[in-house]
Specification:
With about 550 residues, the protein is α/β, with parallel strands linked by helices. Helix content is about 45%, strand content about 15%. Bound molecules: phosphoenolpyruvate and magnesium ion (MG).
Length: about 550
């Protein structure tokens, strides 16, 4: 038995035979023709490559189609064509010219230093390798599987996955690749175990057809596993099967309140990747995106362009499900070095959340612009304001929104307003005047972390005061009930997005008080759902 350890890229366990697919086979002799003939060969190869990719798209999922569609568009890029033609004019053959242009093109994309575009380099390589293979007359169906096996390859590209027969693909092991590349994203959505960044020794042809035990959770790989390892894998696989049947059942079930109304379970998320995971894990919507993450991110920044990209990616990741983005909630327990906030004796009672619009107007204006543009381009969103205590928090903020919107409409930057506005109810004042606040907005989202802190006069991060920080306290529950009644009276939606939504007993109480949407950390969704299904099961 030989053990390798790589980076876990898609969970799952498998025991199967290895099929080695090594793309980096030594080159063979290429004959170089006159430039005009090499150019004609290149043009024909592009047409054929696009046709092949379009055929792959026909049987692909929506995500996968988007990726392949990008590849087709990239093959039409005139910049790329010019690069290839320039090399051909230097008397390089068409295939080698594409190889050279591919490296230049990928280097340019990488230089833009954009996390999203960097991911796209694997798509660029995928599409151009297809063109090179066509020019070299190589088989593009390396991934045609005829029996169940674990594919061991130097790398797996998105179009390889489109041609793969799912019933034979038991797992992937790659020497290159990364957790975030598209092939692994797709492997995860297909539920195929995958381990990447494995020592290239694994590609040794002697390993072909040998048995392998692959653990996509830990990244462990055992070639020719001994009896004990095989027995352990059988045991783990049986347990996994039992768990996954049960979790799938929970994921697909609907929680129904005693009055017959459905209760939605949403996820709280930080970024597009989080959102994708949550949606795949059964989230029925995204109830809270904490946009202040932009102040800490290494992938995004606070510039208008970066914010538009962030919100657009969040909306797309939510895949037509309802998504609620919260405007920057900075200050108090979320101090940020990048923003020079004035030192205050009681920061939790000072300038935080929406209140900062009075001192940092330009930051909020940029955020409003980015949200309006992203919604206009990518779809309807909910946006909510944190830390509201008085009506003028909303009216002053909305004045700013109107000014930004008017300018964007006038300049033709947006064609319409696709934002539904809401407020977080997280101060006792907001809860008590929720009847008045309802007229300004379309929804309430109850932030029980802060609501408990302010109702109970117990600092949420002070462990000495932890016994007072009790979201089950009748005072907190009474206010929540009041907010729900006001929301119902004025016919607006209400949800709970604080941590207590993931507390079994609290979740049950909120539903009994009329809440029909709970938003929580995604790993809490299924356990909470399971508890509620049992709690409200018809007798
Ligand atoms: C809350 O206060 O309950 C909440 C969801 O917001 P945060 O924890 O980010 O303050
Ligand atoms: Mg809060």
């Amino acid at each position: 038995m030989v053990k390798f350890v790589g980076t876990p890229a898609s969970g799952g366990l498998t025991l199967a035979k290895i099929k080695i697919v090594n793309r980096r086979i030594a080159g063979f002799k290429r004959v170089v023709l006159a430039p005009h003939r090499e150019k004609a060969l290149f043009d024909a190869a592009i047409i054929l490559a696009k046709d092949e990719i379009k055929t792959l798209m026909e049987n692909s999922s929506k995500d996968h189609r988007d990726i392949l569609n990008f590849q087709v568009m990239m093959l039409d890029d005139n910049g790329l064509k010019t690069m290839v033609y320039n090399h051909i004019d230097q008397r390089e053959g068409a295939a080698h010219s594409v190889e050279l242009a591919m490296e230049e093109y990928c280097a340019r994309v990488k230089a833009i230093n954009d996390g999203y575009l960097s991911l796209r380099t694997s798509d660029i390589r995928d599409a151009l390798t297809r063109v090179i293979d066509i020019l070299d007359g190589k088989n593009r169906e390396r991934f045609k599987l005829t029996e169940p096996c674990v594919v061991v390859a130097d790398e797996i590209l998105p179009s390889d996955l489109a041609s793969i027969d799912r019933k034979y693909a038991m797992g992937f092991i790659t020497a290159a690749g990364s957790y975030h590349d598209h092939a692994n994203i797709i492997a995860r959505t297909m539920g195929i175990p995958s381990v990447c960044c494995v020592d290239s020794e694994i590609l040794n042809p002697l390993n072909d057809s040998r048995q392998v035990a692959l653990d996509g959770y830990t990244g462990e790989i055992f070639i020719v596993p001994n009896e004990a390892t095989v027995a352990l894998f059988h045991h783990k696989m049986k347990r996994e099967q039992r768990d996954s049947v049960m979790l799938d059942k929970i994921r697909q079930s609907k929680v129904v309140a005693p009055d017959g109304q459905e209760v939605k379970i949403y996820a709280n998320c930080n970024d597009p990747k989080d959102i994708t995971l949550a949606i795949n894990n059964g989230a029925e919507g995204i109830g809270l995106v904490r946009s202040e993450i932009l102040f800490m991110s290494t992938v995004y920044d606070l510039s208008l362009a970066s914010q538009i990209r962030f919100y657009s990616e969040c909306i797309r990741a939510a895949k037509d499900k309802e998504i609620t983005i919260r405007t920057f909630d900075i200050g108090a327990d979320k101090p940020l070095e990048r923003l020079q906030l004035e030192k205050e004796p009681n920061p939790a009672l000072g300038m935080r959340g929406v209140r900062l619009m009075y001192t940092h107007r330009e930051i909020f204006e940029t955020q409003i612009e980015a949200l309006l543009v992203a919604a206009d381009r990518c779809g309807q969103i909910n946006v909510m304001l944190p830390m509201v205590a008085v009506e003028s928090d909303i009216t002053d903020y909305f004045t700013m929104v109107e000014e930004v919107k008017e300018r964007l409409l006038k300049e033709g930057i947006i064609a319409r307003d696709r934002i539904n506005w809401g407020v977080m109810i997280e101060t006792p004042a907001a809860a008590l005047i929720s009847g008045s606040l309802a007229k300004y907005v379309n929804f309430f989202s109850i932030g029980t972390n802060d609501l408990t802190q302010y109702v109970m006069a117990a600092d949420r991060i002070n462990t000495n005061a932890a016994r007072y920080f009790d979201s089950h306290h009748p005072a907190v529950v009474k206010l929540i009930e009041m907010v729900v009644q006001n929301a119902n009276r004025y016919d607006i939606k209400v949800s709970v997005c604080g941590e207590s939504a993931a507390d079994f007993e609290s979740a049950k109480t909120y539903i009994e008080k009329g809440v029909r949407c709970l938003s929580m950390a995604q790993n809490a969704m299924l356990p909470v759902k399971q508890y509620l299904l049992d709690a409200f099961a018809p007798n």
